[in-house]
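Good morning,

Both structures are done.
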Amino acid sequence: MATLDALKVFVEVVRSGSFTAAARRLGISKSLASKRVAALEDELGVSLLNRSTRSLRLTESGQIYYEHGLRIREELASAEAQVQSVTARPRGQLKVSAQVSFGFMYLAAPTTAFMRRYPDVAVEILLEDQRFEPIDDAVDLAIRMGPLPPSSLVSRPLCKVVYGLYAAPEYLARVNRPQHPRDIREHDSVFYGNYDLGAHWRFSLNGQPLDIEPSSRLVINNLLGVVEAAKAGFGLAYLPTFAARQAVAEGLLVPLLQPYWNEHGSMLVLFRSRKYLPDKTRAYLDFITDWFREHLAL
């Protein structure tokens, strides 16, 4: 069991790129993670990692052990899922990763409803704004905004994502309201630093994409921060409708140029590509998919 625990830590260290990140994901201390990998190296009688102050690199032996470790971990996960599938009801700990803004605004209601239906499941939601990160042992499901780069993960659409232009009434009172996406260049704007298209905002013109490069003096890497800056009247903001929905309802943001708005893929639920999903994972996946279909059209 000690060797298996050490193998899991070693694989996570390689995947995360550091002992610090691996320890955080596994819920252990950095020193314990380091000790387990060191003990594994002592037991095997080889060095698995070349360590420096700035990076970790696999040795030749480490590369071989890492590849086998990935397969062993997947087999264990599949075995656990098959065992759990014979239980009468979903139970256990479920970890869900989601982008900060979407999770903050929309995951509490369906998740608490799910937990009331399945009292033997405990849920931990991890809010993080990485553009894309593969699911590891610490996470059962991830919710990310698509389109996403190719991977071995299976995805299920949760809801469509439409991007539009917004501004506060205060800002619009002191400027000429834009009439066309090209007018955006004449305005101040708040830029979302994690946006996949880089320094462009994408609109649709006669069915064709129209990319506009805004003049952005303020860049924020979190959508909630972009919404707040736009509400404060700093300038135009290019936002998914789910992020701006509440502010529009409260009259704090005004939608602009709606005929040019662009659909930007879907919000996706990602999970491992394997035959047996644990009952707890499958139950949550089905529950939130149905919940969004019934309660929320974004």
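Second structure follows.
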Amino acid sequence: MKLQKFFAWIAVAIGVIYFFVPLIGTLEFSLRMRRDVYSFDAYRSVFSDLGFLTAFGFSMLMALLTIIFGMLLVVPTAYWVRLRLPQIRPFVEFVTLMPLVIPAIVIVFGYLRLYNSSSILPLTGYNQTTNLLLVCSYIVLSLPYMYRSVDTAMRTIDVGTLTEAAESLGAKWTTIMFKCIFPNVMSGVLSGAFITLAIVMGEFTMASLLNRPAFGPYMQLIGANKAYEPSALAIIALAVTWLSMGLLQLVSRFSKSAPIKA
């Protein structure tokens, strides 16, 4: 038994070293912009760059729009499948898993083929419509995580009873959805939202090929032309991801102790 614990701790130690040593090295390198002195010059250089503020703000806006429209798509779909169409549940789950199977570069090349400036629907011909196409792309990428988060939260409530009770009081479909269903699956929605935020902030392929000023292409551009700033950007991106995961854990913890609304 002691030998098993010993090997278990060895495995944990190897995992910690494998994960944290590169991060520590990246952090240490990002502080060496000034010769022989640790400083935050690389971070000051990044935060003072207008391109960083533009790219970060653009990606945050895209993440917000992706979360809102993804939520409006996924929650009614999961609700309707669970309440009225349980027979198509395997098909819906299969469709939501497709973004994990099809590479992002394949999806974006399909978009460029279908929505180029010479097509019937030339979405790539204008900045605003290209942004809309990028949001749709991000919704597709986040669909497996958002759908499963919402579906898992929906399993914890009695959808049929809530719907019947609301209908008996004269509630319309919109009232049922936004006042009965959404509050009870908010933990799942927020879980999917934080994962979506992490995906959007780190995504490169779609934003690059659609020629959008997102955070992922900006990181690649800086990495190709500067030395210390890319390490600082990597730490910043990691901090955003960890913040999202920390908020996810916090929401999950509070949702377990929160009473179910009737």
